[in-house]
Structures are given as structure tokens and as C-alpha cells.
Design goal:
single chain, mainly alpha, about 450 residues, binds iron/sulfur cluster
């Protein structure tokens, strides 16, 4: 085994280990949410995956960014083939393992990757321009200040480095093949490198050229390994999570709100109707809605980790458009940030986060025994959740079928039903509904009006 092989195995192994830890953390954090079964037919879910996740159906409501996004997306999918070869070459110390085996097919595949990489390069430059110079409104909102903006730029810069690595590697390789260097099997005429290589590197001597080819190979590899380790900390995790997230998305029609059986049964019994399910007899008043991530469903948390921070939801949100504080994108980012905080604290095992710290018996930190004195309301203000009109525009527009409305409704339910708090006008309305069955507190007149019609 030569030095290069050893270095490759150490680096790839370390990246694999770090990535495993990162993805395991995400998995455990998603499970902090409540269990909730998936309803609906699996065939409908798979059709969503094909149309929305693979087919990018929702993206094509706006053609120009959709086309550029498609370039990067398809290039990403195709470069996995080349990555597979790099892994084999790295482990076994060979060069272009598939070239002699596949012959002309190899030339075709690598040429496709080169064309897609070139298109992805153009798209990346356009996205950097849009985000940093053109300042598209949805990409410069205050919730993107700091890390989210840096995160978005870092991945675009990484993309530029990745494509540079591909063309450096293939370009230098093409020139080396022309010089009949040993260890460089023929790849045929590649679509871009066969002319770009001689143009850029044709004047270099062979030893220097070999070093350039290796530099390109390592640059490509290091960026890929860096991506794999970095993704669990980035909004770009959506490149993996978009597929399962679309699969688990709610199949109900957009306007249908999740029922609360306990409340429904209570209302039915007040109206003298038969309850549909047996509601438990509570010794104390239970908490309704959501106060923290443990009260959300695991789907809500997965939604938060899948959010691409594209801001399409915020751009169509009537509350945001009319200057209110609410941004559905920020709601999803806040849920992710709070989940990360809880996950980190739990992983620390520090008993200061235990609900029963004074208990002499050692306790484990889990959803039942966790209390850091904070909640989702430390991230999401009351003003934000009150501004939501429940219009579902954010749900409709999301390219990866995220539902920002569901956690907003659950936070409101907690505030209204568990805290008996909320905006003054709402409390008046709910009291009127509860006491008089009418929002205007004029039940008798309302009844009379109804009878006039019949
Ligand atoms: S449902 Fe609420 S958050 Fe979503 S777009 Fe409508 S007002 Fe905005
Ligand atoms: S919730 Fe959907 S639309 Fe909104 S920012 Fe996230 S990915 Fe984009």
C-alpha cells in the first residue's frame, strides 16, 4: 500500500466516522418529536416522491431559478458515478478503474458529467450573484443574517471548488494521455476537458502535469468529503432529507386542520352528542398543543431539518407581505435551532437539565425528564404566531412539502388551551363561543335570524 492509498483511507474513514456521528445526531433529534403514524396510501406517497422530490414539480412554478437549480441537482446526482470510481481508485491505488472496462460508454458518462458540471458552474455563479449582489428580497430577510447566509455561500463556493477539481483533474489527464504517459488509460475525447486541458495545461512539463492532475483529484475528493461531514450542520441537508420528507408529508387536503379528539369529545358531550372515542378521565388538566419540540410530531422536526431556507413560503405569506413579524421560514429555522439545543443538552448528560434534579436516584435525560427552563416560545414570539391567517399559502408553495402552519397552530393551541392566554380579542371570541355558541355574544338574536330563514 502506497502513501497515497493510506492517506485516502485515513481521510475517507475519518470523514465517514464524523458523518455517521452527524447523521445519527439528526436522527436522534428527529425522534425527540412525538410519534405520529403516517396516514394515507403508500402509492400516493411514492408518487409525491417521484413528482415533487425527483421531478422538482413545485420548483417549476418559477422557471428561471428552477432551471438553474436543476443544473446543480442533476450534476449532483451524476457526479456520484464519478465519485464511486474515485473511491475505488483511492482504496486500490489504481487510476480510472472503469475506463478500460466501459470503453466508449465511459467517455459518454464522463462527458455527460462534464457538461452537467459546466452548467452547474454557471448556475452556481448566478446563485452567488442573486444572493449577494442582486439581493432577491426573499434571500435577504433578517432571519438569514449571520450563519444562514454564510452557510448558503459556503456551499456555493464549495460547488465552485468541486467543479474546478473535476476540470483540473480531467484536463490534466487528457494532456497526459496525449503524451502516452503510463498509468493514464485512455478516456476517449471528453466533451470539455479534451480541449480545455490542452488550452490550460498544454505547456506544462509532464511531472508538473502529473502534480496538477493529482491536485485536481484530491481537491475533488476533499470537497466531497467536506460536504458529507458538513451537511448535518447545514440547510443543504435537504439534498438527502427532501426525499423522505416528501414521502412523509401530509396527504390531507391543504385546508384540513388536525383534529383534537379530547376537545371534540368535550364539545360533543356538551351538545349532548355521543363522543366518537373514549376520552380519558384526566386527574389534572392536560397540556394541549405544543410548548416545546417534544410536543411536536417527528414529522414537524423532520420538516425543520429539511427546510432549504429558500423563503418561498415567506414570500407568499400574507402576514409577512403586509409587514407583520411572521415569517414561516423563520418558524422552521427556529424549530431546528431549538431541537439542536435540546439535542445538544441531552447529549451532554448534564443533570442540570433534568426535571427531577433533586432526586437521589440517577435519572436519564429524556423527553419526560428534560427541563432547561426554555421552550419554543423563547425562539418564536407570540406576535409571530398570532399573525398567521392559516391561509396555507406557505404549505402550498413549499418545494419539499413542508408544513409551517401545523407547528404554528400547535403553539397557538398551547397558548389558548393550556395557558388560557392569547390576544384579548381572541379570548373574548372563544369565551363567547363557549358560553353562547356565537362569536358576537348575541345568541338569541342569531337564533331568531336563523329561524326567519327556515
Ligand atoms: S398559513 Fe400562516 S404562515 Fe403560512 S402563509 Fe398563511 S399566514 Fe403565512
Ligand atoms: S419551509 Fe419550504 S418554502 Fe419555506 S423556506 Fe423552508 S423549504 Fe423554503
Amino acid at each position: 500500500m502506497n502513501m497515497q492509498q493510506l492517506l485516502f483511507i485515513v481521510l475517507a474513514g475519518s470523514a465517514g466516522y464524523l458523518a455517521f456521528k452527524g447523521y445519527k445526531r439528526i436522527y436522534q433529534n428527529i425522534l425527540l418529536g412525538k410519534s405520529a403514524p403516517l396516514s394515507g396510501r403508500a402509492s400516493d406517497r411514492w408518487s409525491n416522491v417521484l413528482l415533487v422530490a425527483f421531478g422538482q414539480k413545485k420548483m417549476f412554478k418559477n422557471w428561471i431559478p428552477a432551471i438553474f437549480h436543476l443544473f446543480i441537482y442533476v450534476a449532483f446526482l451524476f457526479t456520484q458515478i464519478e465519485l464511486f470510481e474515485i473511491m475505488i481508485d483511492g482504496v486500490f491505488g489504481v487510476h480510472r478503474f472503469f475506463a478500460p472496462i466501459l470503453g466508449g460508454l465511459y467517455t459518454f458518462i464522463i462527458s455527460c458529467i462534464e457538461v452537467l458540471s459546466f452548467l452547474a458552474l454557471i448556475a452556481t455563479v448566478v446563485f452567488l450573484y442573486r444572493r449577494n449582489l442582486l439581493k432577491v428580497p426573499r434571500l435577504v430577510k433578517s432571519e438569514l443574517n449571520g450563519w444562514p447566509k454564510l452557510d448558503a455561500n459556503l456551499i456555493l463556493i464549495g460547488e465552485l471548488l468541486l467543479v474546478s477539481g473535476i476540470f483540473t483533474m480531467n484536463g490534466a489527464d487528457s494532456v497526459l494521455q496525449m503524451r502516452d504517459s503510463i498509468h493514464y488509460p485512455s478516456t476517449g475525447n471528453l466533451a470539455i476537458s479534451s480541449w480545455l486541458g490542452p488550452f490550460l495545461f498544454g505547456s506544462l512539463d509532464t511531472v508538473l502535469l502529473q502534480m496538477v492532475e493529482r491536485a485536481g483529484w484530491w481537491l475533488h475528493l476533499m470537497v466531497v468529503l467536506g460536504f458529507i461531514v458538513y451537511l448535518p450542520y447545514s440547510k443543504h441537508l435537504h439534498i438527502f432529507l427532501a426525499f423522505p420528507n416528501v414521502y412523509i408529508s401530509n396527504l390531507n387536503s391543504r385546508g384540513k386542520m388536525q383534529n383534537m379528539p379530547e376537545i371534540m369529545n368535550e364539545v360533543k358531550s356538551m351538545l349532548g352528542m355521543e363522543a366518537t372515542t373514549n376520552s380519558e378521565a384526566y386527574s389534572e388538566i392536560p397540556d394541549f398543543g405544543a410548548k416545546d419540540v417534544f410536543d411536536l410530531s417527528w414529522q414537524n422536526i423532520m420538516n425543520a431539518y429539511t427546510c432549504t431556507e429558500c423563503g418561498r413560503c415567506t414570500a407568499v405569506c400574507p402576514a409577512n407581505i403586509t409587514g407583520k413579524k411572521l415569517s414561516p421560514r423563520k418558524i422552521m429555522m427556529d424549530i431546528r435551532d431549538r431541537t439542536e439545543e435540546v439535542g445538544r443538552n441531552m447529549a451532554s448528560g448534564d443533570m442540570k437539565y433534568a426535571k427531577n434534579k433533586e432526586n437521589s436516584v440517577p435519572v436519564t435525560l429524556d423527553a419526560q425528564n428534560y427541563d432547561d427552563g426554555k421552550s419554543l416560545f423563547d425562539y418564536i414570539s407570540r406576535e409571530e404566531i398570532h399573525a398567521c391567517t392559516s391561509c396555507n399559502a406557505c404549505v402550498e408553495v413549499c418545494p419539499v412539502l413542508i408544513n409551517p402552519l401545523e407547528p404554528i397552530l400547535n403553539l397557538r393551541r398551547y397558548e389558548i388551551l393550556s395557558e388560557s392566554a392569547g390576544p384579548h380579542e381572541w379570548v373574548q371570541l372563544f369565551n363567547a363561543m363557549e358560553n353562547g355558541g356565537c362569536v358576537w355574544q348575541i345568541p338569541a338574536e342569531r337564533e331568531a335570524w336563523r329561524h326567519e330563514l327556515t
